Amino acid sequence: MTAKVLRYGSEQLEGLPEAFSELLKRATDEVSSGRESSWAKAVSEFNERVPDMSFTSLLVLPWLFDFRYRRSTGEAIARFLEGLKDARIIGTNCESCGRVFIPPRSFCEICFKRVRTFIEHNGFGEVATYSVAHIGTNPKEKLPRPEVVAVIWFEGTKVTRPNSNYVFHAGGLMHRLGEVEPSEVSIGMRVRPVWRSREQRRGDITDILYFAPVR
């Protein structure tokens, strides 16, 4: 047989010769992993084992499954993303411990309580840590100029405990820094968000172009 299209399920394999069943499974695996070149060897082996069913080529069309998912961001992050479209940074405030969460959370892991109070933040913060990137998303290409990527802690989200050496920060954002040379960046440097134009904003984190130093 030549270029015959085969559609099969597990129940159809039961009535086939074992060698043929093995070949079909193997051929499907080769299709899935992109190793079509080894088909010739598989076909040759089959022809030797089952000469009365020999053929020269095999075309296998595996079943294609189209899975579509719907995800919900939840109330807190949904309001955060909607705020970005209006150049606003939205957070939540725990009425029990007083911490401000940015991005917003709906639950305080310290107080074990629901957080229901939303606030608007001015967006000013400080560089908690940073890295200078010379390579972007394509590891084969060097960036035209180095980019600084930093973790931003927002003003009012820092909580210190008098009886502890720990400082708590309720979240923060990782984002690019702009309007500054890598050599000028320092931990603790005060920064502010720089926004896309209104017509370009669509409700995601890239609505903030970068964070720039507060001069």
Report on the structure:
The protein has 215 residues and is an alpha+beta fold. Helix content is 20%, strand content 31%. The termini are far apart.
Short description:
By secondary structure, this protein is of the alpha+beta class. It is built from 4 helices and 14 strands. Residues 1-8 have low confidence and may be disordered.
Q: What is the fold's blueprint, element by element?
A:
Blueprint: E1 5-6, H1 10-13, H2 18-33, H3 39-49, E2 59-60, H4 74-85, E3 89-93, E4 100-101, E5 107-108, E6 113-114, E7 117-121, E8 125-135, E9 142-154, E10 158-160, E11 167-169, E12 173-177, E13 190-195, E14 208-213
Parallel strand pairs: 1-2
Antiparallel strand pairs: 3-4, 3-7, 5-6, 8-9, 8-13, 9-12, 10-11, 13-14
Helix pairs in contact: 2-3
Number of domains: 2
Low-confidence stretches: 1-8
Task: Please provide the count of β strands.
Answer: 14
Residues in helix, %: 10-25%
Profile the largest sheet. 5 strands, antiparallel
Task: Work out the radius of gyration.
Answer: 29 Å
Q: Please state the overall shape, judged from the principal axes of the Cα atoms.
A: elongated
Strand order of the largest sheet: 12-9-8-13-14
Give the terminus-to-terminus CA distance. 77 Å
Q: What is the averaged pLDDT score?
A: 81
| Series of H and E elements | EHHHEHEEEEEEEEEEEE
Number of helices: 4
Strand content: 25-35%
Give the helix/strand class. Answer: alpha+beta
What are the defining features of this structure?
about 220 residues, alpha+beta, 2 domains, 5-stranded antiparallel sheet, 14 strands, disordered N terminus
